[in-house]
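Reminder to self: tokens first, then the designed residues, so the page reads top to bottom the way the pipeline ran.
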């Protein structure tokens, strides 16, 4: 999974992240929480199928063990307030989808002018592998 920072901004887009998910949490449009993984057991003992409560439990159970990448969909507001009904032909994408990545890699620590000299200088710098806090295994540099 690649989270690309897009264009440079020193505060909001300072680097991109490369990670491999070990599992994924979904909250579906029919109001069900679920964990999807072949390699990692569900971090939460029991779902309440209440998105905010399940999300709090999930984040508390994995605190300091990895990185979460994903999205909170617009339809999550339906569990907080009354909104107009959904479209008949809605795409039925999950309301929440978050991938848990216990290991991640920061791909760039700085930006240059985009020149060939700048690209060659960056190419000579090794990429560092970073564990998330609480994880003792490093990913290998790509």
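Designed residues (142 positions):
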């Amino acid at each position: 999974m690649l989270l690309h920072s897009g264009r440079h901004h020193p505060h909001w887009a300072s680097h991109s992240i490369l990670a491999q998910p070990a599992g994924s949490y979904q909250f579906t449009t029919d109001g069900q929480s679920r964990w999807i993984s072949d390699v990692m057991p569900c971090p939460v003992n029991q779902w309440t199928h209440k998105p905010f409560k399940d999300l709090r439990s999930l984040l508390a159970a994995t605190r300091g063990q990895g990185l979460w990448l994903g999205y909170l969909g617009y339809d999550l507001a339906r569990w907080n307030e009354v909104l107009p009904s959904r479209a008949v032909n809605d795409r039925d994408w999950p309301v929440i989808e978050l991938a848990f990545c216990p290991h991640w890699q920061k791909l760039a620590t700085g930006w240059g002018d985009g020149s060939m000299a700048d690209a060659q200088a960056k190419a000579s710098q090794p990429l560092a592998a970073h564990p998330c806090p609480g994880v003792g295994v490093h990913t290998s540099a790509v």
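Residues 1-6+14-142 form one domain.
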